[in-house]
Amino acid sequence: MEEGRAERRRRTEAPSHTQGGPRRAGVMTDVHRRFLQLLMTHGVLEEWDVRRLQKHCYRVHDRTAAVEELEDFINNINSVLESLYIEIKKGATEDDGRPVYALVNLATTSVSKMASDFAENELDLFRKALELIIDSETGFASSTNILNLVDQLKGKKMRKKEAEQVLQKFVQNKWLIEKEGEFTLHSRAILEMEQYIRETYPDAVKICNICHSLLIQGQSCETCGIRMHLPCVAKYFQSNSEPRCPHCNDYWPHEIPEVFDPEKEREAGTSRATKRSLRSRQH
Amino acid sequence: MLQKPESGALPIPQAEGEKDGDRDGETQALTASQNEVPSPFLQESPKEDLGARKEEGATESALTPKGSRTLAAKALARRRAYRRLDRTVAELVQFLLVKDKKKSPITRSEMVKYVIGDLKDLFPEIIARAAEHLRYVFGFELKQFGRKHHTYILVNKFKPLEEEEEVEEEDLGGDGPRLGLLIMILGLIYMKGNSARETQVWEMLRRLGVRPSKYHFLFGYPKRLIMEDFVQQRYLNYRQVPHTNPPECEFSWGPRSNLEISKMKVLGFVAKLHKKEPQHWPVQYREALADEADRARAKARAEASMRARARARARATDRAGIYPW
């Protein structure tokens, strides 16, 4: 019986390795297992790190084999992970579009992955920060505003000084990013919690007009209000000297960032500030 | 067996369920994927649905409205039960992985309390399937121990790595190389008398093939890493040097660096780099020694005050006869 690869994947069943021999899901070898273990350890990895990781796993377990193309390698693993409601998801950093990978939960149980590292009141602090970030115009919540909510936290009472340190802990564990005293979500949090966020805050949540994924930081059209991720803006308006809003066709008022290209040298991060963008913090 | 698909003729939209009912005893053979996306699946293989329905319809006349409704209800209930079982197994796998990260053993009662709930009669099957997933997918063995064998741990089935492989593995994840870069900068700052001009830092990095705005395969964008990340994480201080024209900026150690590493360690690193002994730089060596002495004194003071506080607390509870907390 001839089946296309796509069809085979769609009809993936639970690990039939228990019944003797995988039927149509991908095959796991020690190369894949080590890869998964290490990816889990790090939480989130940038693409160049993931490639190094993949090569490392081959070197340890199967020196002679040819290193499979990363996308196929990951799809293979994902077909096995499907029955466990998890997958290796690819995303991009919101500020300059660097590709990142994380192992995410497909069944939405919110901040469950953080639960092992944080106490109840700390998790609640994260939730409060998350709400402020989602509600904000810029995708950033100020340290002050977060700390002012310290009295409302569930669990053991937390002082502001302590809360400051907890926020730093979130930064170190790659759940939040800090920029000049303000906090936004790390790409890890966006990857892992997108579903949870969309379900929990359906009214407040912002979506990118181009890729239709969750949007925390981005640019917005001042006329019709649609929003776009910075890397999505970069790709959409690439080499377009007169950028116009895809929705209302009005002139796009913000500076167009550059498409992420690891080979090219360019202005790294920081203040992509034109006077216009400064006004609205470029959202 | 392969009949002409007449998808329009199927009276019940849950024809997909018939397929599940067909393989009653094989609980492993089901996944969420079939259940989450019913419509494309329906359109894709209506032939199988027809075949399954034929086998199922032996007892009840599947063609009467009542018969087909009962059939559908049964299939739906069965499907729900399988789905629930699958989800519980998946949740247990995740629960075990998360708990194992903390290196704490997991008890059966914890599993029942947080994951399994009222499916606890099916515990043996659930844990067996979870164990198989952990073994096949992640390379972990679920081991039991304890008197009643109700405590579990995950054991990595991989053998320990060769040294060079281990080093390579530790290097992954960005932190290693980035912290290496940080230590180079801390070293430069220290050797230049606890502050280094920005131009000096970039000059050193240029010699290492690192340019500020060129994406580096180990460090990402170095300018962002150093000027933003390291400064925000308090590893480095960055300030303008007063009375300089054109204005120059300098780096110094940030408070986190002072907490996480010592001058002596950084001097040791610089010495190794130059294949010399730390004493080769007498000024810095003396300073590092003094720093070590300071740290030892501070540590002793902290320990003493902790002991004093503990004693005071003990006395207070003795007097009050109750715990103050």
TrEMBL record, chain A:
Biased composition (Basic and acidic residues): 1-14
Domain Phorbol-ester/DAG-type: 193-245
Subunit-level organization: Component of the Smc5-Smc6 complex.
Biased composition (Basic residues): 273-283
Enzyme class of the recorded protein, top EC level: transferase
Alphabetized InterPro entries for the sequence: Nse1, Nse1_RING_C4HC3-type, PKC_DAG/PE, WH-like_DNA-bd_sf, Znf_RING, Znf_RING/FYVE/PHD
Sequence similarity: Belongs to the NSE1 family.
Annotated protein name in UniProt: Non-structural maintenance of chromosomes element 1 homolog
Keyword match Zinc: yes
GO MF annotation, one: ubiquitin protein ligase activity
Keyword terms, alphabetized: Chromosome, DNA damage, DNA recombination, DNA repair, Metal-binding, Nucleus, Telomere, Transferase, Ubl conjugation, Ubl conjugation pathway, Zinc, Zinc-finger
Renumbered residue ranges of the record's region Disordered: 1-26, 262-283
GO cellular component, one term: chromosome, telomeric region
Gene3D superfamilies in alphabetical order: 3.90.1150.220, Winged helix-like DNA-binding domain superfamily/Winged helix DNA-binding domain (1.10.10.10), Zinc/RING finger domain, C3HC4 (zinc finger) (3.30.40.10)
Function, in words: RING-type zinc finger-containing E3 ubiquitin ligase that assembles with melanoma antigen protein (MAGE) to catalyze the direct transfer of ubiquitin from E2 ubiquitin-conjugating enzyme to a specific substrate. Involved in maintenance of genome integrity, DNA damage response and DNA repair.
Compartments, as annotated in UniProt: Chromosome, Telomere; Nucleus
This enzyme's EC code(s): 2.3.2.27
Record's catalysed reaction(s): S-ubiquitinyl-[E2 ubiquitin-conjugating enzyme]-L-cysteine + [acceptor protein]-L-lysine = [E2 ubiquitin-conjugating enzyme]-L-cysteine + N(6)-ubiquitinyl-[acceptor protein]-L-lysine
Domain RING-type: 208-249
TrEMBL record, chain B:
Keyword field: Tumor antigen, Ubl conjugation pathway
Polar residues bias spans: 28-37
Xref: Pfam families: MAGE (PF01454)
Ranges annotated as biased composition (Basic and acidic residues): 16-26, 45-57
Chain residue ranges for the region called Disordered: 1-66
Ranges of residues in domain MAGE: 85-288
Any single GO CC term annotated in Swiss-Prot or TrEMBL for this entry: nucleus
GO biological process: negative regulation of transcription by RNA polymerase II
Protein name: Melanoma-associated antigen F1
Species per Swiss-Prot/TrEMBL record: Enhydra lutris kenyoni (northern sea otter)
